[in-house]
Amino acid sequence: MSIAIACQDLKFDNIAGIIFDKDGTLENSWTYWRLVGSERARLIDAQIPGVGEPLMMAFGILDDQLDPQGLMAVGSRIENEIAAAAYIAETGKSWHESRKMAQSAFSEVAESKYLNKIAQSVPIYDDVIETIKCLSNKGLKIGILSADSTAAVREFVVKHQLQDWIQVCLGTDGEIIKPDPRLFWQACKDLGVAPEETLMVGDADVDMTMAKTAKAAGAVEISRRQSPQLGSADTQINSLKEIQFL
């Protein structure tokens, strides 16, 4: 089944599926990831004084704000670990030791009982459930494709009881990361829809670039926090409620 979708003044015909990014698109996780990045930098700085501040900038954390296009916001854990290890290696540590130190700090933060991802710390946006339910009820197949892990995506779906409407949960667990189009193709394959009949909705340019390279039906950028900047997106919305049926 396929339908026509309108976002702002742009119309997309013959749409059978929609794939959403998670962080910043469905889940308000900005504060959480800023705290995670700050704690990772603090632990590494405790072992190598002076590396914390430049590492925070590398993560995209500046003046207690998280850059929505920065490394923490759009990068995978592996990418963030490698960036941290590179800053450690600049102090003269071997690459093996640098990777080990970064992995240790990241694991300690991940296991911290003070940084648990609970509904209060990473709330779902108000427009998500209603929109996803309506899209699914119209016969569209719905998936989530995130730079977070697949396990974290599944946890998000279960936590917010979205199982009845979300058919595919896909994260970044290996070396293939956004904006590699293979991630989008895999999500489409799992949904049982063709890329050219599938919309990508996300908040970062990597989502838009991925969709474009994968020959998706359209790339829709949602602007939750930043000023409008169309970039490579086909159109930009401020709320998921702007995804309308025709």
General description of the model:
The chain is of the alpha/beta class. 40% of the residues lie in helices and 17% in strands. It has nine helices and eleven strands. It has helices at residues 30-47, 52-59, 71-74, 77-89, 95-110, 128-137, 150-159, 181-191, 205-213, and strands at residues 3-7, 10-15, 17-20, 61-62, 65-66, 141-145, 168-170, 198-202, 218-222, 235-237, 243-245. The strands form three sheets. The chain has a six-stranded parallel beta sheet with strand order 7-6-3-8-9-10, sandwiched between helices. A three-stranded antiparallel beta sheet has the order 2-1-11, with no helix packed on it. Strands 4-5 form a two-stranded antiparallel sheet. A hairpin with a 2-residue loop joins β4 and β5. α1 packs antiparallel against α2, α1 (30-47) packs across α5 and α2 packs antiparallel against α4 (77-89). The protein is elongated and about 60 Å long. It starts with a strand and ends with a strand. The model has no long low-confidence stretch (mean pLDDT 91).
What percent of the residues sit in helical stretches (DSSP H or I)? 40-55%
Identify the strand order in the major beta sheet: 7-6-3-8-9-10
Describe the sheet with the most strands: 6 strands, parallel
Structural class: alpha/beta
Oligomer: single chain
Strand content: 15-25%
How many strands? 11
Return the average pLDDT rounded to an integer.
91
- What's the helix-strand series? EEEHHEEHHHHEHEHEHEEE
Quickly count the helices.
9
Shape descriptor reads: elongated
Based on CA atoms alone, the radius of gyration comes out at: 18 Å
Gap between N and C termini: 14 Å
Give unreliable regions as ranges: none
